[in-house]
Amino acid sequence: MLINKDQFNLINTNKTCLIKNFVSLQREYDFNLLSKLMEENTLVIEQKSRIGNLKDIFHALNVSDYLIEFKTFFNFLIKIFKYENHQGDGIDLFFCLVSQVGEAHVDKEDVFIIGLKGKVIYKVFDTEDREYIIEKGDMIFIPRGTKHKVIGINPRIVASMGFFGKRISNGEKI
User: pTM of the prediction?
Assistant: First the structure.
């Protein structure tokens, strides 16, 4: 897991930050893996859009019990950015089987998103609109309250780690 000083400072000051090649993923994250996880476990899957059939965007909630490697990333981010524990914190998967565009939205938590499969554009509406391309092993940080939109260029899977708790810096909450 690689974060340089400039990236650390951007995240620590609540600025959107793209980290190319954040992690080298050994496992193949594909739709066969998702199918196996759904078959063997009681995953909660929500449809994020209502297009119908398999054209929707799907959301698998709380996958940390099934994909243990993500606990390592999650714990790393908690320690490096000093997040307070919050019951809403967690790791989810978002996936779609076709190219898909999500609705612009604002999250209530800080999110760190790691690309697992496919190519995804995150369009961030901040002081100036920017587009960030995420591929396997890349990570983007989007601070809470930042409006953004997701554009899946092709079928995709991403892991989203959300932190609702505040950060502590030198004894003060950020």
Answer: 0.91
When computed from its CA atoms, the radius of gyration of the chain, rounded to whole angstroms, is 16
Q: 60 to each of 34, 154, 167, how far by Cα in Å?
A: 9, 19, 26
DSSP 130-146: EEEEE-BT-EEEE-TT-
Q: How far is CA 124 from CA 23, 81, 94, 127, in A?
A: 22, 22, 18, 9
| CATH architecture of the domain formed by 5-49+60-165 | Sandwich (2.60)
**CB-based contacts of 88: which residues, under 8 Å, 6+ apart?**
109, 162, 164
List, for residues 114-169, the tens digit of each pLDDT value.
999 999 999 999 888 999 999 999 999 999 999 999 999 999 999 999 999 999 86
3-state secondary structure 103-114: CCEECCCEEEEE
The interaxial angle of helices 69-81 and 5-12, nearest 10 deg, is: 70
The token duo for 105 is 């939205």
Q: Is residue 123 a contact partner of residue 133, using CB atoms and an 8 Å limit? A: no
pLDDT in the model for residue 49: 62
